[in-house]
Amino acid sequence: MYAVRNWLIGGVLMLALTAAPAESRGTTPDAIKLDALVQLYDAVQFNHAQHIMVVMDCEQCHHHTTGTLVQDKNCVRCHKNSGATAVVACRGCHSAQTFSAEALREKKDKNVYHLDKLSLKAAYHQSCMGCHAKSGGPTGCQDCHTLNKTGEAFYNTGEFAPKQARETGKHGGH
Predict the structure, then answer these.
(1) In the structure, what pLDDT confidence band is assigned to residue 85 with cuts at 50, 70 and 90?
(2) Rounded distance between C-alpha atoms, residue 46 and residue 44, angstroms
(3) Burial class (CB in 10 A: 0-12, 13-18, 19+), 70
């Protein structure tokens, strides 16, 4: 049922986007490849245009829009005088590996570690899963994520699952 609805919405959306003049669409990407975890999962092809048509309010997903001040109540505590925002991409603020040695070395202020700032994965999940739960969108892991061979090996699943698990469909895992 959701698949048919999403297909219809996507078709209408794509028709509307191709019919609208390019200048009215601005520089907003129609699709975004979310690939922060490609070492374990295939990239998620996020249909940005479809979400724009359904939600129609950028601030529902983004804390701010290009050219505006930061509006998220947690960010404003320190960044209220930071000026207009140049980037609205999630990875512009949220790091894939928030507390890795590399990420900590890049910080300008070594005394502030943004302990309350979500990682990129957590930011995606909080925003996406919260909205999908309210709107009836897909919420299952496999709805968006497909393990690649490296991921299957890492999680001992698929062809890498122990023989007993493959035969019975049960696993003794986590």
Answers:
(1) confident
(2) 6
(3) buried
Please check whether residue 122 is in contact with residue 116, taking contact to mean a CB–CB distance below 8 angstroms: no
Give the residues across from 44 on adjacent strands.
34
Closest CA to 35 of 24, 44, 26, 47: 44
Q: What is the mean pLDDT of residues 32-48?
A: 91
Q: Which two tokens stand for residue 156?
A: 């001992």
Q: What DSSP designation does 67 have?
A: T
pLDDT digits (tens, 9 = 90+) for 125-151: 888 888 899 989 889 888 888 999 999
Residue among 42, 44, 116 at smallest CA distance from 74: 116
Quick one: 132 exposed, middle or buried, by C-beta within 10 A (0-12, 13-18, 19+)?
middle
Q: How far apart are CA 136 and CA 5, in angstroms?
A: 11
User: In this predicted model, what pLDDT tens digit does every residue of 27-37 receive, in sequence order?
Assistant: 788 999 988 88
Which tokens belong to 109?
């202020």
CA–CA dist 99, 116 (Å, integer): 12
